Amino acid sequence: MDSYVVEPQSLFVPYLSDVLARAELRVIRVAPTLDVEDIRDSRPEALFVDTDFLDIDPADAVSAMRAVLPRAFICAYTDGAGAGADRLRFAGANCVLSKRSGPGEITDALRTARTRGSFTDPRCD
Amino acid sequence: MLGSIAPTPSSTKPVRVLVVEGQALFGKALCQVLASDVEIEVVGDADSIANAPLRRLRPDLIVLDLDGHHMEFSEAMRMCRELAPQAKMCVLSTHVQPEVMQRCLSAGADGYIVKDILPAELIRAVKSVAGGQAYVDPRVAGGVLKRRSNGFGRTAQNELSVRETEIIRLIARGMSNKEISAKLHLSEKTVKNHISRIFAKLNITARTQAAVHAIKTGLA
To answer: What's the half-sphere exposure (Cβ side, CA atoms, 13 Å) at A68?
Structure first.
């Protein structure tokens, strides 16, 4: 799946891209901040967003993404406890991943989410 | 960066670096970036100080995540000093607020890096700290200078600790004690204790006052 990543930690992006590739998510574009117009214009099949650096409420960000790409696979990457996984799911996230997860857990979770339609790391509940 | 660029350590002996980062993927990414430099040897990585074999690894420098610990930051620093007294400490943080940086340096950190740093700058920062120089993210250092020029400051007695600063920022975001305790992996009782100390230090009695203070002072 062609994937769009929202992640300001630039040194992290190459490693993250490798991990996503193992889950068949090919990164086609990376943005340091949420830019809904750019997301719409890029027309990715999947979105991976680090929710801890957004200027707006993470659930609102997911809603905005869902609004411009109704069929996209959306993955929220969060620091875990207290992240409001319910709100992220309700806003339209298919997958809620914990930053405590290692690379193997991330790829497994992404594959599970794509197969079953959703996945939430229990640490984010 | 504060001060001049430090000479790099001897090219025949790489700097032994231990990465302690709660965000697992980010930690691996850090290791990958640091290991790409021939003058740096990554001797290990851990998700917390408690899980890091400090005595065995004997690192020259510890890159320590400020945000992902299950203990007070000052306690993490104390453990590092006790178990690896030879090691320089470089703090990794998501915070660009000067107050947070100042408290880290007060707790004994030798460097303060913000997590959106570019790879080349990260390597330069690590080498500088290993070479005995202080390193502070230029944006944060700029904030300190601005505050000084504005005559802004509180007495040390009334300054908030790193943890208290984290908590007041979360209060300003409207989070409840329960949400704060979950986010910081603390008990609600501990959070309440921190908030009581915040109120006492700031001479306030309500969360809204704390939120206003955080916003006014640039903490939130």
So the answer is: 19
Report the SS3 class of residue B28: helix
Tokens 């409001």 found at: A84
Torsion sign over Cα A46, A52, A53, A57: positive
What the block records as the tokens of B182 is 């979950």
Q: Which residue of B has its CA nearest to A83?
A: B183
Disruptive mutation site among B19, B21, B23 for chain A (greatest number of A CBs within 10 Å): B23
pLDDT tens by residue, A37-47:
999 999 999 99
B145 vs B24, residue with greater confidence: B24
Kindly give the pairing relationship between strand A119-120 and strand A95-98: parallel
List residues bridging with B22 in a β-sheet: none
Hey, of A11, A98, A125, which one would you mutate to test binding to chain B, going by the most B CBs within 10 A of its CB?
A: A11
Task: State residue B171 phi and psi, 5-degree precision.
Answer: -60, -45
What is the pTM assigned to this prediction? 0.69
Between CA B90 and CA B49 the distance in angstroms is: 13
Q: What is the C-alpha separation between A86 and A90, in angstroms, rounded?
A: 6
A23 pLDDT tier (thresholds 50, 70, 90):
very high
Identify the three-state secondary structure at position B61. Answer: strand
How large is the ipTM?
A: 0.81
Q: Work out whether the CA dihedral B80, B184, B25, A64 comes out positive or negative.
A: negative
Q: Summarize pLDDT for B53-76 with one digit per residue, the tens.
A: 888 888 999 999 887 655 677 788
Dist. CA A67–CA A69, nearest whole Å = 6
SS3 A26: strand
Specify the amino acid at residue A94: N
Nearest chain A CA: its distance from B116 CA (Å): 4
How far apart CA B171 and CA B195 sit, in angstroms, is 9
